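User: Can you help me understand a structure? I only have the sequence.
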Amino acid sequence: MNPTQGRASAPAGWLVTGAGGMLGQDVLARLAAEGEQSVALDRAALDLTDPAAVQRALERHRPAVVVNCAAWTAVDDAETQEAEALRINGDGPAHLAAACAATGAVLLHISTDYVFAGDATTPYVEDAPTDPRSAYGRTKLAGEQAVLKSLPERGYVVRTAWLYGTGGPNFVRTMIRLAGQRETLDVVDDQRGQPTWSADLAGLLLDLGRGALAGTAPAGIYHGTSSGETTWYGFTREIFRLLGTDPDRVRPTTSAAFTRPAPRPAYSVLGHERFGPAGIEPLRDWREALTEAFPEIHRVHEKENPA
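Assistant: Let's start by predicting it. Here is the structure, written out as tokens:
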């Protein structure tokens, strides 16, 4: 069944907020492919900072599962606009959680590696101490805490990182563009993480939502990132390889070469220990996912940037 865009309907199995974003689009596509009934609410259709509007939306559609893909993602801008970012990343999830508590819905809330300090040397487990070093990280942690407090039995926080896909601006698309503009490219080699395809994460969210409804996946925190790890430099070399161009055009550099308002985590590798007991397979290795995702991402790039 095709998702509806905020119009009256019979009770839906799934409701997706932030439906216009990269991950939201992939979640909706996966739900449609699996024959799941869904309602798509983008920013224009639902203001998450308005608690009354959020409550009305859930009472209207009565979803069994809500997937919150809406977020303030402008990491650097949050440093000077933290109050506004908090309204979306903190208050918005709190309003959703309250509405889910009132209507009996499960909430899958998307969060980030930025809730950690980024100074670890081994993968962060799901219950590792949080210590955000940026305004963005602080606002996302506030959202996590609100969800877990209001929905101890039906609240799921899914942290992801280094997300890319076809439906929006992201690192892979930027590197494809720069490969066509520059002879060489300097890329940071002292930040480690897990490139994660948004379509893979969408499938994981579907599995987790179904596990929540079946009672096989306990509520709490999960880490939705690909397996394996690399640096931005290693990631870019793989992108160049898939482009069919020389990876040695990519040169390693340090974070000090790219000063930004918000500090970037040096280590963003997340562990996936909670999926096993929930009967869910963690995401595959990042290279395998990128290899499958790349042709479509490249095709979209070529379509949007004709020679």
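Now, to help you interpret it: Confidence is low (pLDDT under 50) at residues 1-11. Residues 82-103 form the longest helix (22 residues). Let me know which part you'd like to focus on.
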